[in-house]
Amino acid sequence: MPLALIQTPRYTAEALALFSFAHARDHDEIDDALKARGVDSPAVPLDPMPPLDAAGPWLLNHQLKHDAMNQALGLDSSDLTGFDLTTEAGFEAFAGENFSDHDSARQRLNI
Ligand SMILES: [Zn+2]
User: What residues sit around ligand 1, an ion, with C-beta below 5 angstroms?
Assistant: First the structure.
């Protein structure tokens, strides 16, 4: 799954579903690379994302994934929990920060 799919989601139900799927698969790939290094990542449900006006628990679970990933790789953690996903600007800001974390992890893992 191309990483670019989680960088520039269009704000439609279909595109959000694709973002949700692609994003979860990207976490799966990162988790596999971490596991190969002996690092377990918390198993949290990422896909499908809940309705965006009820995404609070999802954001907290997702943060657990990023905290474990970043800690294992010696990367600075971003706080990805404070975005309002119900607005296009908020979602785009979340997606940008999230992409940056994923890209940094992939570079560190050489995947
Ligand atoms: Zn993520």
Answer: 98
